[in-house]
Design a protein that fits this description.
Low-confidence stretches: 1-43, 704-724
Distance between the termini: 47 Å
Shape: globular
Mean pLDDT: 82
Structural class: mainly beta
Oligomer: single chain
Length: 724
């Protein structure tokens, strides 16, 4: 292991020396030609930009993000908190994650695995919206929209990226993006590759009763080969109409090895036996998606129609082998090992069709649209136990489950400015048909649901420096598709995961007051209430087994206050963005004191970018989460510090970046659980300290900007969306 770290450090040192030599040569050459050519100065966008309706993170401008992935980038998003199980909150609100405006339809561990496969080099910016308007799906009270990079320059150009990093193991990144654009046609494509190996150190103690507890320690390594690609073309049919197609995808290979040791104690005395589970397996994810769009402007007043057709596929192949051995206190084998294996393929498809229309109306703007979404998830989980020399189906864990969900939606919203007031009111209607079928159990659950989702926002622009806002949004929190599957996932002889086919969506109401000062101070005070709130629970089963599953609690509410301040110092050579957020949350469940709890917490984040000299930029970021209770969880504090430095080289065509994440190796997730008589403590350490050296190079035509071929009545809003 030491040799791998030494080799990685040596390679990074050699790359740094070579690039430093390049920098020195460039500086010398620049001095020689100082009086021979003009100098073009390109202003960089700040990493974090605040708007009245959103916060924008310009990921491409962050030295810390270079060589990382989307999962790591989100740890620096102001007000975004990972609850530890892949479910994110923004300023205390449940979040839906979009990519280029499209719902990822993933959550939990599947969302985390998918985000870890998305290279940060392919991301242009991330938009954080606390109360999105009616044109967005009603799912989630808040939205994180990840917008991937797209070159808008004329001619042929591209970007090449390569990097190496080291934690406990070596990691690599590489990528190539190409773009061709003329007056009518834009053809683009990119490919990114990531290799990383990461360790997981998981520890837990579960109290089964006053005298008995189970201690489990797991050590796991996950090795990933991530491939992501995007290709597309946009064509301007005439001055008012355009059509385009885009193909995106992820191909992720993951290999894991895990050893879990389980010990059962009685009154503090170890039992007369213990067990170990050796797990080995691989996961393959293939996630292609296709978008076809047509857009036309009927006239120059702003009447516009956009039609989108999308296809999304999430194909998973997952195989694991489990070998459970039983020992006496001296380590002598007591019996033959318990051999178990699973084959867990999943094929999820989503097809959607949407039409959005915009036109001026009564000195304002009307937006309306229709959307249909058809989802099918097919999970065929097969478990087998080896008995003697043959593998036999384990009927208690095997399950073939198909879930179908069809959503038909319509929305309308109206925006208008009256003197110093900006008004927006919207209404979204959704009819949802859900059908879950367990072919193994011959059981079918069907549900139909119709909901109206109103929203409104009022902004009072007292002056250029002072803006006040009030907004409301009704939303729905739909469960991830694996939650409704009643299959059992074996972790150890004492711990299983299981879905719940009777789970129901949660309805949320969110009110928010906001104040913005001089586009540098952004404050919010919000209140959220959820009915039928979705939560994790733990319950006992036979044989000292604990099952982690899901249920609906009666209600929950949260009060959240946040302050984000962004300001430049020393002629903007130091840009500092700081967020402080306080949250109070309470869960209510009749007849259960453990599930009726309340807790307060504080979140603090600071992100600082320094322009040291021309072309040399540094960034330091720190995050702290105080202890916080919600649902069955009592989270303990978490904190970490990241830093990075980047240098423009090769006449600003190249960039060299060196960064380090979780410098002091403090990021650990610790929490306690109290649920239906199960009292547990968890201490999970996922490897988070890495050092990376990344080189990127832009080639081809990078100077000529594309002329605007079309003028519409909503270009101002489009520029605001793009953060320009």
């Amino acid at each position: 292991m030491k040799s791998k770290i030494t080799q990685s450090a040596t390679m990074m040192w050699l790359m740094a020396c070579l690039c430093w030599h390049s920098i020195q040569a460039q500086s010398t050459d620049s001095l020689r030609r100082k009086n021979l050519q003009a100098v073009t100065v390109k202003g960089a966008k700040p990493f974090i930009v605040m708007r009245a309706d959103k916060i924008i993170m310009n990921v491409s401008e962050s030295p810390i993000a270079a060589g990382g992935d989307a999962l790591q980038v989100l740890t620096h998003a102001p007000g975004v908190v990972d609850q530890g199980n892949g479910n994110y909150e923004l300023r205390g609100k449940k979040v839906t994650v979009l990519v280029d405006g499209k719902d990822s339809r993933l959550s939990g561990e599947e969302l985390k695995e998918w985000l870890s496969s998305l290279s940060a080099s392919s991301i242009d910016r991330i938009e954080l919206m606390g109360n999105p308007p009616a044109r967005y799906d009603a799912k989630g009270a808040a939205i994180i929209n990840i917008i991937t990079s797209k070159n808008r320059n004329f001619g042929t150009n591209g970007t090449l990226t390569a990097g190496i990093g080291a934690g406990q193991y070596t990691r690599y990144v590489a990528g190539l993006g190409l773009n061709y654009r003329n007056q009518q046609l834009n053809v683009y494509g990119n490919y990114d590759y990531q290799y990383n190996k990461q360790y997981y150190d998981l520890q837990s103690i579960r109290l089964l009763d006053a005298n008995t507890n189970i201690r489990e320690n797991s050590w796991e390594t996950r090795e990933r080969n991530n491939h992501s690609f995007k290709a597309g073309a946009d064509y301007d049919i005439n001055s008012r109409s355009s059509v385009g197609v885009m193909l995106k995808g992820l191909l992720n290979y993951r290999y894991r090895k895990m050893t879990t040791t389980s010990v059962r104690d009685y009154n503090g005395q170890a039992a007369d036996s213990f067990s170990t589970v050796a797990t080995g397996g691989d996961l393959q994810l293939f996630n292609p998606s296709v978008n076809v769009y047509y857009k036309t402007d009927f006239d120059t007043s702003g009447k516009q129609l956009t039609v989108n057709v999308d296809y999304f596929n999430y194909n998973k192949s997952w195989d694991d082998d489990y070998v459970t051995n039983f020992y006496d206190p001296k380590g002598v084998v007591l019996q033959a090992p318990y051999l178990l294996r699973d084959n867990s393929p999943a094929n999820n498809t989503i097809t959607s069709m949407a039409a959005d229309y915009t036109q001026p109306l009564w000195k304002g703007k009307l937006e309306a649209g229709l959307k249909s979404t058809f989802t099918t998830t097919d999970n065929d989980i097969r478990w087998e136990q080896k008995i003697a020399a043959d593998w036999k189906i384990d009927s208690g864990k095997t399950n073939h489950f198909i879930y179908r969900e069809n959503i038909f939606a319509a929305y309308a919203s109206y925006d208008r400015s009256i003197k110093k007031f900006d008004l927006q009111i919207g209404l979204r209607a959704e009819q949802t048909h859900m059908k879950g079928t367990s072919l193994t159990l011959d059981q079918t659950n069907t549900r139909n649901q119709f909901n109206l989702f109103p929203s409104f926002a009022v902004m009072y622009n007292q002056s250029a420096k002072h803006q006040y806002g009030l907004s409301y949004r009704k939303s729905i929190e739909r469960f991830s598709f694996n939650i409704v599957n009643p299959f059992v996932t074996y972790v150890s002889q004492y711990f299983y995961y299981q879905g719940n086919p009777n789970i129901r969506p949660s309805i949320g109401h969110s009110f928010e007051l906001s104040y913005t000062y001089n586009n540098e101070l952004f404050t919010t005070l919000s209140y959220q209430r959820y009915n039928q709130v979705l939560t994790d629970i733990y319950r006992k089963d036979t044989g000292n087994v604990v099952i982690s599953t899901y249920t609906n609690l009666r209600a929950a509410y949260a009060v959240n206050a946040s302050i984000t301040h962004s300001k430049g110092f020393f002629e903007n050579k130091w840009m500092s963005t700081n967020t402080v957020m306080a949250t109070y949350a309470k869960y209510n469940e009749k007849g259960s004191e453990q599930l009726t709890n309340a807790g307060a917490g504080v979140y603090v984040n600071t992100s600082n970018t320094f322009t040291l000299t021309k072309g040399l930029t540094a960034e330091v970021s720190a995050t702290y989460n105080s202890p916080m209770a919600f649902g069955v969880y009592k989270m303990k504090s978490r904190y970490f510090i990241d830093a990075g430095i980047s240098k423009s080289i090769l006449h600003n065509a190249g960039k060299l970046t060196l960064n380090a994440t979780d410098i002091f190796n403090t990021l650990t997730t610790k929490y306690d659980v109290a649920s239906f008589g199960v009292i547990s403590s968890y201490d999970n350490k996922v490897e988070s300290r890495f050092v990376r050296l990344v080189f990127s190079y832009k080639f081809g035509n990078q100077r000529v900007k594309a002329a605007r071929n079309r003028k519409t009545g909503i270009e101002k809003e489009q520029r605001r969306m793009e953060g320009n």
